[in-house]
Design goal:
Layout (H helix, E strand, L loop, with lengths): L3 H6 L14 E2 L5 H8 L30 E2 L5 H9 L3 H8 L5 H9 L7 E6 L5 E9 L8 E8 L8 H15 L4 E7 L3 H9 L3 E5 L2 E8 L4 H46 L4
Parallel strand pairs: 1-8, 5-6
Antiparallel strand pairs: 2-3, 3-4, 4-5, 6-8, 7-8
């Protein structure tokens, strides 16, 4: 979420972090659990993608493994499309004010992929349905601090993606030597505050605004291995989705050509 100053000025000042009370967060991933879960991750991938398919959000359950990959500068366009797809209320919750299209585009253009980490979840149509921004502090005196913001498209909610992105960001932060993890959110953003609270965060409310903070444990061999395995799986998952999408796009073109030929054959000669 945007910092308090960012909300007041209509800017995103990721990395300008305030200090506060903290609690302990335990390791979020087990490497072997990721490996076992990957055996089930590819089921149904070759089904043709359909728009609007799937049960209501209330009945959806989170997959065993959610491939979450790091996003580089080459994903900027998809990041912009994801954020621009948020409705006015979701933009208000994500940024602390009702961001316009122009403000969102400026935010995307200002992303620092060298300093910060962006995580994303793609569906089979290569649409970015959920993303998180882990922003490092720009203050050398607060180098061990990071701030977390997340957004999930309405069509993808109810599957625990926000919590999965939070876990992934915490693991990466630990591996990068971050010891203090912050979330700034509007008090009405109960979903985000619930995720932080379940992770053991201290949540402090100040009227319409809230702050959650965690004290992260040092990285371990398990967290380093877990992140390496998770990223490799996510990269492989993305490459497979690209190839599958290319296959279905090609098949759709072939079917369109076939229909055109059949329509031409059915037309009576002039």
């Amino acid at each position: 979420m945007a910092t308090k100053r960012g909300r007041d000025e209509g800017l995103w000042n990721f990395g300008q972090i305030s200090l506060g009370k903290t609690l302990i967060v335990c390791s979020m991933f087990e490497t072997m659990d990721l490996v076992k879960a990957s055996l089930e991750a590819g089921k149904g991938l070759l089904r043709p993608p359909t728009e609007g398919a799937g049960p209501p959000a209330e009945s959806r359950t989170a997959p065993v493994l959610v491939p979450i990959r790091s996003l580089g500068v080459n994903h900027k366009d998809r990041i912009a499309r994801h954020l621009l797809a948020l409705d006015p209320h979701d933009r208000y919750l994500r940024f602390g004010f009702s961001a316009s299209d122009e403000q969102i585009q400026r935010y995307v253009d200002s992303l620092n992929f060298e300093r910060d980490e962006i995580f994303g979840i793609y569906n089979r149509r290569l649409e970015l349905i959920a993303m998180a921004h882990l922003a490092s502090s720009v203050d050398p005196n607060l180098a061990a601090c990071a701030e977390f913001g997340v957004s999930v498209l309405k069509s993808a909610r109810g599957r625990g993606y926000g919590a999965r992105l939070f876990d992934r960001a915490v693991m990466h932060a630990r591996n990068q030597g971050v010891s203090r993890f912050f979330i700034y959110a509007l008090s009405e953003n109960t979903a985000m505050l619930r995720i932080a609270s379940k992770a053991g965060a201290t949540v402090e409310r100040d009227g319409s605004e809230s702050e959650a903070h965690l004290n992260l444990q040092p990285a371990t061999l398990d967290t380093h291995l877990s992140e390496m395995v998770a990223e490799q799986m996510a990269q492989s998952d993305y490459r497979i989705k690209v190839q599958v999408k290319q296959f279905w796009d090609f098949l759709a073109e072939v079917q369109a050509i076939r229909r055109n030929i059949q329509d031409a054959q059915r037309r009576p000669p002039k």
